[in-house]
Amino acid sequence: MRTIIAMIRFLIRAIWSLVWGLFWTLALSFALVVGVLFFSGKTGSGIDGVSRAAQTVVTQVDAYFHRTGPMLSQGSPSAQEGLATDGHTSTGARWDQATAKVYLDPAMDETFTLAYEEALESWNQTGAFTFQLVTSEEEADILLTEMDDSTVSAAGEAESQTNVLTHRFKRVIVRLNRYYLLNKQYNYSHQRIVNTAEHELGHAIGLDHNEEESVMQSAGSFYSIQARDIEAVRQLYKESE
């Protein structure tokens, strides 16, 4: 009997030591990765930067185990890390002039309609590019709509048709992914959704990802349109002025 009790105590101690050791290993690993992200400057500075770095790590761990979360790209980036983040690949394309006609899909969720409208207004207020709303999809250069796809590791996407000879856009379809943006698990605020819309519209203008404090930051939808984004658009369309 004493032997059995001794064995049970030994197993309890061994299990406790294993669990405690695992806990500290995970905690230290988490702190290390958060530190690396923070000091890399990709998540901003100060307490907000640390918080964003922690959110990024949590999102990526969740995405790894569930195979559904958005990847760190903004997409962007995700569980709320990042998703302004997407799988955008640079094409070097833009419109011929710093203006484009856009059509809002009337069938999409009202949350996205409002987010798109705010994002369009924000870009128009910069004076660097003008989006003109039209009432017919056929006359639009850009279609703003939604998707609901867990197999796409992105909160949004901008799919473009480009003239490979002139490097000019022919048509762009922007989609916000409701699977992430309207999913309570990912806890996206309205402002984060608007930032995601601004990010994808940035791609529709011709902007690529960067790792600065920018609406085009690949790590996520943490920033709205910044002065550097406005200047990037002006430089992109400088020759068309």
From TrEMBL:
Residues 72-91 are annotated as: Disordered. This is Peptidase M10. The keyword Protease applies. It comes from Streptococcus koreensis. Residues 110-237 form the Peptidase M10 metallopeptidase domain. Pfam families: Peptidase_M10 (PF00413). The chain crosses the membrane at residues 12-39. Keywords: Hydrolase, Membrane, Metal-binding, Protease, Transmembrane, Transmembrane helix, Zinc. The keyword ATP-binding does not apply. CDD domains: ZnMc_MMP_like.
